[in-house]
């Protein structure tokens, strides 16, 4: 299986969620709202389709108590706002992202984008709005351009070069013998951590997402790269709604809003 196939296969494997028969379209500025959200992984129901393509019967709830990861969580993220999510390990930060991308459905409450419940939207449409940068950038064997484009034919050469420029990695890429066509070997093992981070930034930016989600890397990079990463981040969050699971104090300091997660699984508190 090629890497592209594997990535798309991964995105396709979410039997828990279904698109509605007549999805609602959203074309607003990207306001996000969590309203009284409750979520427990041990209450996630697999909703497969039957042979006719209709949603199959949902199994009855198991007798065990729900193990709530999120209890009555409410917050809003206004268009253009940069929000830092901080908190202890296991507190539910990544879960928030998985719910926003609708990898799972919540048990109570609502998650809305521009006032539309994400369960009323087409699943692919929901996910298309987000550019996601994972903590550990995933590079595959192919060219650097392939790695930035990620199979999206509509991302032109100019767009991906501009994205690389905007995150301060253009000069480095152009210095390679093959430039943007240079092969990435063994999942980027010949590139430094900082270079891989910046390439994954360029990937997100090239797709011009309305909403940026970034799980900030914890691995340390040298001072010069650190500066580049910070500058790149500043440019990426400009003019778009951004959610950053923050590990750097500098990121937290520059956020418009900080959402603090406690490890005791208590409600989320948002502070401006
Ligand atoms: N797929 C899953 N199935 C069951 N439980 C899960 C799953 N993913 C996470 N959990 C549990 O949900 C809780 C919240 O996990 P989550 O990954 O959201 O934490 P986090 O705040 O992102 O932590 P970290 O800072 O370590 O990344 C944890 O108790 C975790 O064990
Ligand atoms: Mg996490």
Textual characterization of the structure:
The protein is α/β, with parallel strands linked by helices and 272 residues long. The protein has nine helices and twelve strands. The chain has helices at residues 3-12, 93-100, 123-128, 144-149, 157-166, 170-175, 193-206, 223-237, 249-254, and strands at residues 32-40, 68-77, 82-87, 108-113, 116-117, 130-133, 142-143, 183-184, 211-215, 241-245, 257-261, 269-271. The strands form three sheets. Strands 6-9-10-3-11-12 form a six-stranded mixed sheet, with helices on both faces. It has a four-stranded antiparallel sheet with strand order 2-1-4-5, covered by helices on one side. It is globular, with a radius of gyration of 19 Å. It starts with a helix and ends with a strand. The structure holds adenosine-5'-triphosphate (ATP) and magnesium ion (MG). Adenosine-5'-triphosphate is lined by residues 41, 69, 87, 89-95, 261.
């Amino acid at each position: 299986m090629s890497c592209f196939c594997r990535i798309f296969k991964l995105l396709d494997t979410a039997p828990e969620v279904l698109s509605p028969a007549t999805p609602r379209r959203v074309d607003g500025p990207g306001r996000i709202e969590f309203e009284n959200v409750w979520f427990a992984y041990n209450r996630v129901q697999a909703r497969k389709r039957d042979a006719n393509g209709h949603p199959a019967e949902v199994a009855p709830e198991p007798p065990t108590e729900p193990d709530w990861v999120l209890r009555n969580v409410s917050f809003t993220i206004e268009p253009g706002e940069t929000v830092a999510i901080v908190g202890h390990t296991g507190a539910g930060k990544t879960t928030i992202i998985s719910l926003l991308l609708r990898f799972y459905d919540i048990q109570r409450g609502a998650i809305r984008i521009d006032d539309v419940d994400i369960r009323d939207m087409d699943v692919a449409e929901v996910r298309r709005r987000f550019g996601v940068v994972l903590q550990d950038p995933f590079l595959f064997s192919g060219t650097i351009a392939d790695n930035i484009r990620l199979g999206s034919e509509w991302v032109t050469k100019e767009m991906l070069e501009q994205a690389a420029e905007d995150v301060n990695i253009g000069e480095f890429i152009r210095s390679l013998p093959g430039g943007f066509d240079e092969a990435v070997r063994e999942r980027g093992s010949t590139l430094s951590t900082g270079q891989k981070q910046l390439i994954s930034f360029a990937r997100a930016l090239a797709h011009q997402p309305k909403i940026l989600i970034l799980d900030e890397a914890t691995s340390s990079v040298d001072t010069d790269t650190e500066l580049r990463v910070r500058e790149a981040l500043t440019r990426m969050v400009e003019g778009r709604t951004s959610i950053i699971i923050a590990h750097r104090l500098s990121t937290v300091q520059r956020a418009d809003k900080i959402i603090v997660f406690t490890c005791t699984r208590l409600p989320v508190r948002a502070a401006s």
